[in-house]
Amino acid sequence: MLPDRYLAELAGSLDSLKALARQPGEALQRAVPACPGWTLDALFGHLGSIERWAAGVVLNGKHVEGEKPPTEAATGWFLEGTDAFYRTMAGLDPEAQCWNFGPPPRTAGFWLRRQAHEHAIHLVDALQASGLEVPSFTEDFLLDGVDEALAMFAPRQLRLERMAPLEQAVTFRVPDGSTWTLGDGPVAATVSAPTREMYFGLWGRSSLADNAMIEGDAEIALRAIHSPLTP
Fold it and tell me: CA triplet 163, 209, 118: central angle to 5 degrees?
């Protein structure tokens, strides 16, 4: 996807999140289903922290320390920082050298992609917590998110020893024919799902075990599905 597409997706999610953040105070104490122990207020505090950190990295071109959200009224803190965050994302040069935690090349464009998906997934969280319908993301954005999860995050999770290596290879497939294989050797199982379900499932916002079609060794496939493929 081109940088302008990431920016457009980020802008749309950010506008929706800001609207949800302006709900009455009691609504902000609702639990977030996919994030045990979090309220909506805590979710917005997390986003405010991530936004300040990502903007700081982009502006400095190197790793910076993150800022912890306040323990109370974190939603207001989130809202105070959104405009500056978006200006930083909109003004970055995607080709500029910039630290990030993905594979080379390490350029600022990484942060447009990462923040577009960060905000999309947390928009899903905020909508689910608010009892509202989750929007339909475009197919190319969903496909890009599946690629980020399986081609960038899953290898990183393995490298950081946050998940155990798969004993046998597992292929993930979406309807357009795109595939990603995790593990070494012959493929023992294939996990197929609609792109939307694959995207949400890889981030734990829906159940791939329930929504995917598994071919081959189901035990190996389920072990992969239930592994922490994303942080």
Answer: 60
Give tens-digit pLDDT for 58-73. 999 999 999 999 988 9
Distance separating alpha carbons of residues 70 and 77, to the nearest angstrom: 8
| Nearest by Cα to 14 from 57, 44, 34 | 44
Cα angle for residues 222, 223, 225 (degrees, 5° grid): 60
Instruction: Tell the residue number behind the tokens 């959200």, with chain if given.
Output: 69
Q: 49 with 68: CB under 8 angstroms? A: yes
Half-sphere exposure of 73 (CA within 13 A, CB side): 3
DSSP 19-72: HHHTS-GGGGGSB-TTSTT-BHHHHHHHHHHHHHHHHHHHHHSS-----PPPSS
Q: Give tens-digit pLDDT for 103-137.
A: 999 999 999 999 999 999 999 999 999 999 998 99
For residue 76 the two structure tokens come to 């207001």
pTM for the full model? Answer: 0.96
Contact 7, 89 (CB under 8 A): yes
Q: What is the mean pLDDT of the chain?
A: 97
* 3-class secondary structure, 107: strand
- CB contact at 8 A, 85 and 135: no
Burial (CB count <10 Å: 0-12, 13-18, 19+), residue 72: exposed
Average of pLDDT values for 211-230?
A: 97
